[in-house]
User: What shape does this take?
Amino acid sequence: MSPEEAPRHIPGIPDVTQPLGSLFGQTDTAAQNQKIGAPHGAQGPFTPGTEPSEQHGERSQAASPCTGGGSARFVLEASSLAIGWKQGRTPQILARNIDFRVSPGQLIALVGPNGAGKSTLLRTIAGLQPPCGGSLTLRGRNIALMSVEERATLLACVFNERIEAGYLTVWEFVAFGRYPYTNAHNRLTADDRRHIATALALVGMDGFEKRTFSSLSDGERQKVQIARAVAQNTPLLVFDEPTAFLDAPSRIEIFRLAERLVQEAGKTVLLCTHEVDLALKTAGELWVIDREHRFTAGPPFVVARSGAIGRAFDLPTVTFDAMSGTFRARAPQG
Assistant: This one.
């Protein structure tokens, strides 16, 4: 389709001057329902110093780990999932017995120490490596059996590997997010260009369109990669440490952007991070993989008091304080 022809309708990335829901195809009624009724399992962020009954009540039965087949009601669903890799024909399992159900419109934060298996889980969810056991479905379909083209319209990813994009400009790099929607000639419509411009504005990189990707700082490159994922306009966004290389205000800004995409646009965001304090305050669901590769999922206040964060991060000199939701130094012994 040429730019002169009427552009096809693709639900848009939000215009920063309008409520996100209106441009993601969410009606006023749908947006109101989103605020009134929290998605299954989304019990809200952690509030230090309060008991679970004071915040959200008991977790709904619908949010319990799945045991059956995949359901299209859930964006993501795993049952007895095992992750790892293969050496020859032998699977090397890193973590097993992973169960979760993710409803539309959730912000999930994944935390854990280095080497626990966070990136392996994200890559398995993205379909970049097969599961070592169990089931994993996206919109009720086996992710491992999906074509690349189909997956590209359902989830967009930002991983923390360093990307060398040569002399591509920032605008050209973000335009790759629109590739799943282009025609046989890979031509961009006016609608595609609007999505690209809006995505750049959302991450604060408008005005950088003509800069080459290679000329950017590490923090700027990370923001541009997030803009590319946002421009892809998928129901699920997977971010692997999107706040890496960013200063403190920018890290908070990324979390706030994730909140807006969830609350106003009904997107589902899975965000892997080392910012445990921000994750506790922002996410509606918290996933933890500890040093023994054990997986724990639930509302942040439940997970914080379960000991899972301490098992993942405690050191001889540092411990997690479940009541305040922060880390503190251990008192010297002796």
In short: Confidence is low (pLDDT under 50) at residues 1-42, 50-68. The radius of gyration is 20 Å. Residues 116 and 293 are 5 Å apart (CA to CA). Residues 248-263 form the longest helix (16 residues).
